[in-house]
Amino acid sequence: TCANSVCSAMARHAGPRLPLIVKNLIPTLNSVFDSQRVTTNAFFAELLNSNVVNDLILLETMMDNMTGRQKDACMLVRMLALRGLGNIASGSPEKVRKHGAKLLASMVNGMDDKDDPHNLVALEAMSSLSKLLDHLEERDIQSMLLHIAIRIRPFFDSEQPDLRRSSIVLFGNLTKFSQSNCEVFFEQILNGLVTLLLHLQDPKPEVVKACKFALRMCGPNMGCEGLCDMFLNHLREDRSLHYGEFMNNVCKHLMQSYPEMLNRLILTNLFYFKSNWVDIRAAAPMFIGFLVLHVDEDQCQQVDLDQLISGEW
């Protein structure tokens, strides 16, 4: 907040002096003191939120220096560097396309950070990538689309609500780029579908909101008009959801369009019988019940009843 206030004031009133200030601060990015590297990165990250860096021809210099901090020993420095790179979407959106490949690589590297025990760097990478996506070239994102979708999937069930929310929002945003690779990405949608539907019962409202968004975004890619319409009409942010009735109708459409998916959907739900969240634990058997209710008798043969009754997976 302090860095934000200082940067806002400097962007408004100290524009002509900023190039010299930035030049004098750059050496501290390599300081032996973590506190100096953190402070400078926080300042640069907020400065990149303003178009003034573009006007003063500072963007490339600052971007290169922030990119260079991705291997910093201090986790907070790495996190702030990603925040700064993501802020380019606000400060200089017209420049994102030009530097898309480099920015995307930085975000993917952040998600794959190996020294990030609490996933704070990954969280920043996911949040920043969501901001950048609207300004990236499709060709840049296409090559990394599958890797990102697979990488963020485990975060859907994270104990940290921010990680659940950010990963699910990012997944929803990724669907914009799935048209030219629809078969491959459709598989990722199917892999995440049960989780997104169950987390509509998440204890955190911000995660529920993220699931509604992601499902609305997934709908057009699922090849089922009825399901798409349900997601668009019933999962609006301003509309309350009658979960049981909604899931009954969702399962009806799923079994009409993808009856061969029954066993796969059941197996995924069985995993949530042991969920830490009571409402999700309750939703999973209801989900299975509605699936079995709406499937044809012939398709029911694929269900392993012993496994289902025991609740084992």
TrEMBL record:
Domain Maestro/Maestro-like HEAT-repeats: 64-310
Entry superkingdom: Eukaryota
Transmembrane segments: none
GO (cellular component) term, any one: cytoplasm
Protein name in the entry: MROH1 protein
Organism for this UniProt entry: Stercorarius parasiticus (Parasitic jaeger)
Upper lineage: Eukaryota, Metazoa, Chordata, Craniata, Vertebrata
Gene, per the UniProt record: Mroh1_1
